[in-house]
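User: Continuing from earlier, I have the next pair ready.

Assistant: Great, send them over.

User: Here they are, in order.

Assistant: Folding the first of the pair now:
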Amino acid sequence: MAYCAALIAGWPRWVYGNAEWVWTRRPAPLSVAILWPLLLLAAWAALALWWQKQPTRTAVAPLLVGAVLVSGLLPYALSSMRGDPIRQMLQITASAASGSYFNVGAGIEDPNEFLIKHIDRMGGYREVHVRTHPPGLPLLFYGARRLFERWPSLGEQVGRRLLRADCLHPEMIGFSSAQVASAVVQFALPFLGGLGVLPLFGLAKTFFGQRTALLAVGLYPLIPALPLFAPAFDQLYVPFALGGLWLTWQAITRGRVGFACAFAAGLLLSLGSFLSFGNIAFLGLNVLLVGGRLITRRRRGRADWARAIVIGLLLIAGLSTIWLIYWWGWGISGIEVFRRAIAVHGDIGRSYGLWVWYNLYDFASWTGVAFCIPALWLCWRFRKRRQWSAFALGLVGFILLLDVSAFTLGETARLWLFLSPLWMLLGVAGAVRLRLPGAMLMTLMGLQVMTAGLLLQPIESGREGRGSPPPVYQLSSEARPIRFTLDDSIRLAGYRLDGEHVTLYWQALKPLAEDFTVFVHAVDSNGTLIAGDDSQPQMGQLPTHCWLAGEVVADSHVLPVPTPAPPGDYRLFAGMYRWPELKRLPVSPPQTDDSIPLKP
């Protein structure tokens, strides 16, 4: 609670970092939208605590499914406090300032060519994240795009709904509906990150028992980094790391079958490293777990050392698998890709001493301040040489090694997101042994998540406050109804006249692939143009390519009649044309010059 109070007060100043390391304080406006995350957190806490008390195995499956769903829904609930969550997710996904994997991946035409030329393009990509990563992440978007192209009706529906969230986003200009729809890969990351609760439950049950495991599952969605860093790909790496660690422990304890588990763990880490080189660090975590097992065993023989060496070699073999396939199939050396990524990422821009302190503080705060004391207390007791001692020793050793080695000096503890559930697990196990109530942990973590969600916005798109208006499907009661169809695709459903102001009510009859220009002209009895206004709908803020089928678009125009006004009566006409051909869209029923008359 003291930490939350410090965040709210902004004191002491170091709670938000300094010039080299800082999280942006950007309070969300207080509104009724705050109820959504509050209700979700309260309902989940009540259900998780109730499920924890159920002695039957049938209670485990609903708790695990619930944890995955809440992990996926909570980021959207927190984002709703700042506006449309879909718009925010889309803007982050498509923003060049927050990744560009989507922009590169959705534009891939030939995946073989991309795999071959990615290494040469790494220095030329506009955004630094793509320049420092292997080709895996863009290929995820390419794969999603191909799936939507196989089901064009689904791709059209999903793509247009997403595009409507921000029609004018510059990174999506020229994208097809299937390309835009591929953004759902990043939209699904919170749910995919939630899958990490499955191997976490296995680890927790193995080391600390069913009671601790169930409480850890209940607290998993409340780790602040998981919902606040959505939709960052760091969430996807959580199940990779936890799954690899669980497989490694099986390798240590399950005889000959364990050797297959060791290779499977390495293969999982290999796939993770093909998405991000930072995931190579998973190997160190697994090796330290094996070493911790050796150190904490009361009796060690040659067989134990031999088994540890074999497991280590199998981990390395599995880790090399994807990269060997890349080399054999496309002739690209993974070592060279890694070398170029490190060369681009060499400018770290942070002081070592400052970083060593702040990264530990950052990791502890984003994992959950409430877990720190119980976790440290439990780690101190590793000397008892219990089964969990190897886990605690390996995890703490890896965190300290990662910190002092400056391997990730160019990053903050966001890169350590895959470690947060493991540190949380130590905190939960310590709290259970200290007899701290689970309800208290739930309350403290829920409070920290809400405080951070209200005050902090760690991932920004640079387009906050922008976006397209939500669609309207009813004609305004102030409109005068008419029925004219343009090019068999757009209907002028009504209009309203108010002095010099003319509002047209358009309705899309089907999805549109072009942007048309609207004209509203005032002419005298001789057909001479007196006043006119030509522009895309809503002054270019809602172009026709963004319209949804059946939507009614209110489009306002101003016709300043010259002063003094020429004598005679005026007639108003409206319509659309293609630019730059200046060819008007055909009107049905047919009208002279394809101009629709508007009667006063």
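And the other member of the pair:
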Amino acid sequence: MLGMFGRIMGRRAPAEKGMGEKVASGARADALARAPSPGALAAALAAYASLVGLSCTAMVAWLDPACALPARTAATAALDPALLLANALPPVLTCLVLLALTRRPLLSAVLVLLLLYVLYVANAAKLAHLDTPLLPADFVLLAHLGDGGALIARYMPRRVQMILVASVGAVALIALRERPWRPLRGLARGLLLATSLLLAGTLLLDAPPWASVRAKEGDDFLVWSPSTSARRIGLPATLVRRARDLKLALPEPDRAEARALLDRYPGVAHAAEPRAPPPGGWPDIIVLQSESFFDAARLRGLESNQVLPAFGRLAARSRHGNLWVPTYGGGTIRTEFEVLTGLAMRYFPDVQYPYFRLTTRPIASLARVLGARGYRTLAIHPHQRDFWNRAAAFANLGFEAFQGVEHFGGAARVGYYVADEALVDHVLGELERARQPQFLFAISMENHGPYHDYPNADPARLAAQPLPPGLDADAARDLQGYLHHLENADRALGRLADALSRRPRRSLLLFYGDHLPALPDVYAQAGFDDAQVPGEQPAPWLLYDTADRTASQVDTASFYLPSLLLERAGIADGGFFDVLDRLRRADAPARRWTPVDDDGLRALSLMRQRGERIAPPQG
């Protein structure tokens, strides 16, 4: 009886005194006699895999963007079986690997279902706010959050947070209470692990037998539009497909196209030595990248006199206009990378986050050009240094130093983050202490979402923000929260420009918004004056020169900004930026436009990223 009880509980019962050897020997014989046959074990594993597969399929049909709508409006039979299989298969194989490693069936199944649910929650939030699905590169970002995930958690509904907390507690309880599955050990366990890993590996590599499943996807997978792909073929299938692209292999540049481009623009790419500064010295250069800065008057129902008074005042004496950026609702570092390098993200379609894949070694940049002219090059961002991998990226982009949130001790906060006014104070303090020309690249943080229920806000000012008609309560709350931050960003811009105008040294202030704010409900309910979709709206920009108050409107793209800035400063780099400046003058960026000399610029950009020298034309 004791031996049987021990087997049921998954642990050996203690032998009675004087009968130890006999009881132990009997227990071993009894265990061997009751061990399942290989066929019975295989049948049990098949039944387990089928049960997990059904559970995963149900979750896919319920939550996946490629299946969720048909699942709610039509019979389950209307769903494409191949699509369900392609999306249920990855979690089932993951579960079998976990089972082989842990020997705990319930724990493995619950872990996989919880992981699948978390992926769908994250995917839904990312699609709603950024119009981009969850991608393998997002898992790299998890190691570089810096704030322990607080920023991401703020976008998670309280209901989801409670479900996750309860689920983690259930997983912990199962892990403590569930006994290992006795029959799964030794050779059987090894075979299950090897088979599961082999099947998972062939799935990732698109080898037989899964190639036929992928063939079913056909043209539904669009590498240049992951959001469309995820809505067509499903999230797990998209993750598997994109996982094959994690290792970046830059395409070979078409050097003949690059040569032809240089021949069409003679007088550039001379690799000239830096010339001496003008009599008054090089101007201080301040670039202020403003988080989610957007002209809200583009929304139906809001007028230009209701928002951005300081920006409007400065635009009337500056170069300014619409800025076409390579991201929407988030992905700040895509715009940031373009401004610092002049490399357009359109030429790197497989790269979602450039600071993880395009700045892994020292590369040419605006900071390097200005550093060679004697500038002190400093990046400033009142947030964690490791977020977006900025600390490593800025070092490889050639900045002498990077000051993160640790340099803002005691600074005022509005919402969750350091106020824009505090950032302006910091920039002015760095300029005051300078003994050489400065290149300060400042990145604001205050206006990062979410835009409701945030602390350190003035309730009266929040309530006084203008609203277009027709917004529901949630959308109105989000827009008023955003406009509260936007008002602060605009005021800080005006104060910075006024302070620069009083300094004896000439200053250039390049200011721009990195992308539209993530306000999907507002855009859906209010719409835009031009009737275009949110992802095709520009951000505003201006270049304020304290020595030249000439105003002009220039619509441009973020990758052209460094050449425009150097041209105004009177600095020629004798290379890529000079070529870019010639292209900028011949181009007319607009919605859905193709850059002038697109093939040549693509080839030149790939050469630049690879570190190849751009030689001057021959002859």
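Worth noting for the second one:
The first strand starts at residue 284 and ends at 290. The chain has a mean pLDDT of 86.
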